[in-house]
Amino acid sequence: MGKLISHPRDNNYPEKLLSEHLSNVSEGMKEKITESRLESQTIEKSELSNIARDIGLFHDIGKATTYFQNYIRNNNTNSSRKTHHGKISALLGMQYVLSNYDTFEREKRELLSFAVFNIIDNHHGDLDSYEGGNESLRRDKPLFEKQIDNILGNHYALLEQFFSKNDIDISFMENIDLEDLFLIIEESWLIPEDCFGKNTKDYIEFFFLMNYLFSLLIDYDKHDAARLNESYFEGNLQEDFIDIDNYLDYQRKTNPEKFSEEKEINEIRNKFLSEIRENENIKKENHFYTLTAPTGIGKTFGCLKFAQKLISQLDDKSGRLIYALPFTSIIDQNFDEFEKVFKFEKEENYTERPNRYLIKHHYLADKKIKNRTEDYSLKDYLDDKLFVESWQSQTIVTTFVQLFHSIIGYKNSFLKKFHNIVNSVIILDEVQNIDPEYYNLISKAFEVLGNRFNTYFLLMTATQPKIFQFDNSPVFELINTDKYMTHDHFNRVQVEVDLEEKEIDDVLEHLKTTFEGQNCLIVQNTKSSAKELYKMIDEQELFPEYKKYCLTTHLIPIHRKILIEEIKKKLENEEKIIVISTQLIEAGVDLSFKKVIRDIGPIDSDIQVAGRCNRSTEYDILGGKMDILNLGNATKVYKKTLIENSKKVLKNNCPMDSSDFIDISIEYFGAMNFEAESAHLLEGIKRLNYQTTRTNSEKPISKFKLIKQQPNHSIYLLYFKEEWKKMDLEDNIDIENPELLIEELKENYRKLEEDDSDKEQLLLEIKQIRRKLANFQISLRDYELYGDNHNYSEVIDTLNYGNIKYVTQSNLENYMYDKDMGFLSEPKDDISVTKTF
Length: 837
What we know:
alpha/beta, Rossmann fold, seven-stranded mixed β-sheet, 45% helix
């Protein structure tokens, strides 16, 4: 097959032979499964390994047509349908499995052959569903026959020689029954029931096996096509995981003021860590753990101790740690803590190759692998993007969205890392932020991933929801929860509850009559109510001696970050401040107030806000004061049932304190019963339904949305203050004037249009500029941009390349951005038809 190529010459790389590409992908997929710790019950591991091998060998066999070879050799941009190789490769791979895996019964062979077809057919896109009414396959039957005849008449001998080396007989190609294959594909959604009956776990396992094989194919295919050098990460999972004890011993010697064991809080933290260290249930046979503990006890260090103890017991000590949080806004803080430990433990190895050990991945994170190359090019950027997005580091810090949409997913961009999630240790922090509608779905999915794919889960929070609901799988608590949750040191907050419905004026009056202290946090459910309260305080010139802040997602990210750091410093300096915020302050924002007022939310959310009150017991035991009020607008943000359950648990005019949180959490989560959404999605999983809406009782995987309400518009607000450049931000963000960045972007696009001789360098610069502009990007809904009384389209500029929308500084200051509140839902002034330039 030496004369057939799969990929053309690229920069310094020669043409890639089709035989080499098929072999590389096939061998990589098979080896990965052979080395994995799988205990699947629907397919033997050895059989799964063979199927992976065959998927790799057949996935691009359609490139053996003269149509494709002429197209790729001549670098012809105008391809015809005859050059398409995906479906014909999928059909040939499907037929081979159907004809040769005769150790399986017919139903199982049909199911496997369909899986192979779906995986190969969509390896350049997303997994899909195929319906009985889909006539496209039969319509294209003459095309498939022509492609098969072309291969047989031109390159069959080369293919036969190649496949025979892999003990594969391809003579079936001469008598392939396309109609039989079409029928199996069209009825594929009925086949699983013939194979698995009523065994829900088998259905879920097969869904994961299919996604696992798809993940292997797309990742190995992309890496081989890009000619990636994998040496940067090679062997990293075999290296010892970090030992948090070493780091803490060092800190106690060098930083005794903070880590002294004589301090009560550190004595408690040491006992907490010791319980985890000595927990005999942490072993490779046990897959499910919970850690319920109060804020400030050192859960981050505790989870690293757990991971180190568990990973050390795994075969070859090879276990990747995946640490997931609900929001991108709180990842940096946790990542920084991890990085301090890794730097200490790995020393110069970390300095030389930091991402070998630790990486941060979310949609805003930089995709560059550090210290991997000196002369950075677009090819390096695209290679790094592949590395980052496939999660090859020893430890990944990421978001719930990245994790869950890779586990219960259908999209190529998410699933390419699924094979590296399998066999890993997964820690979910702040798990109470998961929508209760998905508890049953996640519980069943995790049970199968844990027991049959040897993946490990730790749910970590101060308010443990009932996600693990297993019949036969034990769940182990890492510590004695009650001992810490009711400890006097963590009894920080007295809570008063007034559930009588109020107006915003009542909240202001409550503030005026109850607050006379040093600082106060007021958390509102909506951006509009937070901004309205802030304006009322400002316009009435209340609390003149206090510095006031308004924190919502209407502030551009860099502005919000700067204000949070400013607030933190003022709290440390014991200055007088009042902060009005939305729920963005609930988790991961390390701020502490003496007085907190919270518009009622779900119990877990209320407790999270309480975690911003007297956070480190700096105001003594029960020194924090929190009032829960009811503005009557909570159902605009949360499900009505959640708020009703909160009211039942809280009970009007019944005071409580922090020591009561564990009991009311148990009562609150015990009353949860959201089964319908999970049941519908589980039906979709059973039917391998990735994207098709069929019945009311079944939902496709594509309907799984961890964040359900997505904003309609993403826009750059080019708001900037010169003094920001001089600020020492914690994660060393380099702040540049966004208007200059937009001009750079325009200039690069102009050059690209006029002359693409330097195309790669220009594209790299464009990507890097857009990364910097992310600091000025917010998401808005239609009604916010185009309201009843305004239309911001008059001041929005559009850069046609990439459909980039932005607003200049002058237009922001004149119309739509406030220096304190950020984006304004109502403009400051009448918007002129003529924009300000």
